[in-house]
Structures are given as structure tokens and as C-alpha cells.
Specification:
alpha+beta; High-Potential Iron-Sulfur Protein, Chain A; 3-stranded mixed β-sheet; 2 helices; 3 strands; elongated
């Protein structure tokens, strides 16, 4: 009886740890007011990018087709090494955009 009870407790704890690790690994969404995001002109919606302020911006440039985006091209959000621990919007843009090969 004790072995079964210990097993159930261990499974419950392990499941909780796995769930919290997965959530942490994904990270919170990057907000445009974040200091690094603001410095790079990040917009969660690329169509709201100020083309006069960022003349390198061209329609169709999105985080999900940037070489730095670590998610799949179809993902709504994914990681970016410029914003460690944060997720960027797949439809977003920043001035560090580099077309994926």
C-alpha cells in the first residue's frame, strides 16, 4: 500500500514539474514596451510598423519568415535569440529582420 501511495505522489509531482518546465521554456510574450523591443522597433503586428522611422521595413517581412525566428513558419509565436526567454508574435517585425534563406 505504501509503495503505491508513494508512486502516485511521485507521478503527481513529476507531472507538475514537467508542466511548469514546459511553460517556462516557452516564455512569456514579448511586449512592445519592453526596453529591448522598443530599441529594435518591435511591433507584434508588422502592419503597424512606422515605415518612415524604419525605412528597411517592407510589407511581408514577418517574424515567422525571419532567420532569427526559432518557431515554425506557421506558428503564431516563437522564440527569438534577441529576446531571450520571450516569445515574439509570428506576425510581428523588428529592425533586426533578416530574411530566412
Amino acid at each position: 500500500m505504501t509503495n503505491r501511495r508513494e508512486f502516485m505522489v511521485q507521478i503527481t509531482l513529476a507531472s507538475g514539474m514537467l508542466a511548469s518546465t514546459t511553460t517556462w521554456a516557452q516564455g512569456a510574450m514579448l511586449v512592445e514596451t519592453d526596453a529591448q523591443a522598443a530599441a529594435l522597433g518591435y511591433k507584434a503586428d508588422a502592419t503597424k510598423t512606422d515605415a518612415k522611422k524604419y525605412p528597411t521595413y517592407k510589407a511581408g517581412q514577418l517574424c515567422n519568415n525571419c532567420a532569427l525566428f526559432t518557431g515554425k513558419a506557421t506558428d503564431a509565436a516563437g522564440g527569438c535569440p534577441l529576446f531571450a526567454g520571450k516569445q515574439v508574435a509570428g506576425k510581428g517585425w523588428c529592425s533586426a529582420y533578416a530574411k530566412k534563406a
